Amino acid sequence: xxxxxxxxxxxxxxxxxxxxxxxxxxxxxxxxxxxxxxxxxxxxxxxxxxxxxxxxxxxxxxxxxxxxxxxxxxxxxxxxxxxxxxxxxxxxxxxxxxxxxxxxxxxxxxxxxxxxxxxxxxxxxxxxxxxxxxxxxxxxxxxxxxxxxxxxxxxxxxxxxxxxxxxxxxxxxxxxxxxxxxxxxxxxxxxxxxxxxxxxxxxxxxxxxxxxxxxxxxxxxxxxxxxxxxxxxxxxxxxxxxxxxxxxxxxxxxxxxxxxxxxxxxxxxxxxxxxxxxxxxxxxxxxxxxxxxxxxxxxxxxxxxxxxxxxxxxxxxxxxxxxxxxxxxxxxxxxxxxxxxxxxxxxxxxxxxxxxxx
Amino acid sequence: xxxxxxxxxxxxxxxxxxxxxxxxxxxxxxxxxxxxxxxxxxxxxxxxxxxxxxxxxxxxxxxxxxxxxxxxxxxxxxxxxxxxxxxxxxxxxxxxxxxxxxxxxxxxxxxxxxxxxxxxxxxxxxxxxxxxxxxxxxxxxxxxxxxxxxxxxxxxxxxxxxxxxxxxxxxxxxxxxxxxxxxxxxxxxxxxxxxxxxxxxxxxxxxxxxxxxxxxxxxxxxxxxxxxxxxxxxxxxxxxxxxxxxxxxxxxxxxxxxxxxxxxxxxxxxxxxxxxxxxxxxxxxxxxxxxxxxxxxxxxxxxxxxxxxxxxxxxxxxxxxxxxxxxxxxxxxxxxxxxxxxxxxxxxxxxxxxxxxxxxxxxxxxxxxxxxxxxxxxxxxxxxxxxxxx
Lengths: 358, 390
Known about the structure:
Chain A has helices at residues 9-19, 33-42, 49-60, 76-79, 89-95, 126-135, 156-175, 194-214, 240-254, 271-283, 298-308, 315-333, and strands at 25-29, 69-74, 99-103, 108-110, 118-120, 140-147, 179-186, 223-224, 261-264, 291-296. In chain A, helix 10 links the parallel strand 9 and strand 10. By secondary structure, chain A is an alpha/beta fold. In chain A, helix 9 (240-254) crosses helix 10 (271-283) and helix 11 runs antiparallel to helix 12. Helix content of chain B is 44%, strand content 13%. Chain B contains 14 helices and 10 strands. Chain B has helices at 2-19, 44-54, 68-76, 84-95, 111-114, 124-130, 161-171, 190-209, 228-248, 275-289, 306-316, 331-341, 348-366, 377-380, and strands at 60-64, 104-109, 134-138, 143-145, 153-155, 175-182, 213-220, 257-258, 296-299, 324-329. In chain B, the strands form 2 sheets. Chain B has an 8-stranded parallel β-barrel with strand order 1-2-3-6-7-8-9-10, surrounded by 7 helices. Chain B has a two-stranded antiparallel sheet with strand order 4-5. The A-B interface holds A 1-3, 151-152, 154-156, 195-196, 199, 202-203, 206-207, 209-210, 213-214, 219-220, 249, 251-258, 287-289 and B 18-22, 35-37, 229, 232-233, 236-237, 240, 243-244, 247-248, 253, 284, 287-293, 322.
């Protein structure tokens, strides 16, 4: 077989398919310590381990929310944390049919000779780390590559370099029992049209799948986490139907049907925008031989954070906000969201930060 | 001063190469730089429509594009001389079969045939149009040895292809076909695979530019004693390269068709594979490599017997696929016809009936509803010829 067949072959396929269960999606709660610090400071909460733990506990113990999730991506610290009552987070998630995932990249660095383009680090010692994470209960991993659209970007160098990094990461994960989420994020920054975004997305995804094939990655045991195809943040907006059409077409042209699911990133869209766009994609008629779901960070947590403000007395209110977004996105994966989620404060607020450094 | 302008010239040209990563279409050599490549120019809608109509349920392609030399072999097998009159008579028999359009949506012709007519003076392309069968045209110029390879071949035909394609379009052709080969016993070498894929990509882009839906055919030859696992490995590599280069050449995937070989063990492998096994391996491979945007996959028969080719196609259509999965058969549709005809006018009607029998069988196979009961022995005879040169 051209695709590598290791000892985790069947498990990888089963886990990837499970994550793509219609009606479910992923909560991306893998903010690094630095990034979660930005979130916490936005609500005047100190960036200490206890607060980080408390936030994640708030999310994972929201009554009724876990049934809308097939996976949660964690940062390394969180993988080993427990609830206040002493139950490991990993156990709590597994009990509720949610697969724990783990961010394994070590951030981006600049590519010399380019205009600020980046590549992603983290391959050194990755195999050993994956084994460790598997033993701790993780069953999928995530690695984020970043590209941007500019007059001369993304360059062929950036595309090749990021695609290759994703492919190496993916095969190492599969060798060690983790389903790799392949994330080539093309940033929304810029004033380009949706057609330009579509063209770049198709180019980048073609390169990614070429690299994955060359590295013998088992496509049935992977997931894709792409950006939706939209106009640039400084360009005139378009309707969700137009976004849906361009996004699905880009995937039809690049993503083999062996991949079971797409879990979109939200990339700065407001909570409501991200949900409505996902819904439009699932209502669209046409060939869609994969599940279209979500892997949202900001777009699932924004109003929750605002409602919490770090105060124990606000936990119930914050959990209600989280439940509302989780349910709305679950409905969006089935194309039945009616836009009637009780909008928490800030649910329609754009979460885009220009030149955002993750 | 000459130096200054020379430097400026150099700076400008290297600036263009360094700073314009997106390839420009030939038409935009002027100052109007297009930042998004335009696929297929004026023919986009027509290409998509043509591909869709060929890839329609219960239909497939009749391949009768044998070059004169190859057609000569067919005629010789029933004792006929290889003359234009005989070739015309044979193609007339096939193309005027009443009711052919019920099972056949496209017919691939050789150049000579595209310009021929019936003995009554009706153009062959008009006969096809009357049955709603799309005329297609073989545009490659055959295989030649690939220097520096391990005895492998490459496919010629790019020179002047644009103007030839435009001429064929004028004559009524709406799709094209280009067949290159990959040999497993010879490696295949990375060079041969790359050349096959790149040639197909260039041909596809040129075809679309001139209104012809390109059928993309990298035939992985049946020759060899390798197991089915080896065939899968090679097929996955070949299709990965093909799609990568097609994308690089800005080919519109909604306006192409594929003509792959099925994934089977080599002809001389000790074990035969059942239709179910062939279907499983072939579909797994295609799902890993073919983007859903491609509307149709039309298998070649490559030396399988008529019944084998039909059974295998049937096995592939037992559950829904992301693309139309059908046939583009030459030998597997024509073998019984030739044997029935024997070159005699009094046998024409019977020969046409036997073409309909095969066409209907494959149409049912496309719908997953074929049964081999009642097939005769002739139809079950294998047609593999070792080292077969097309």
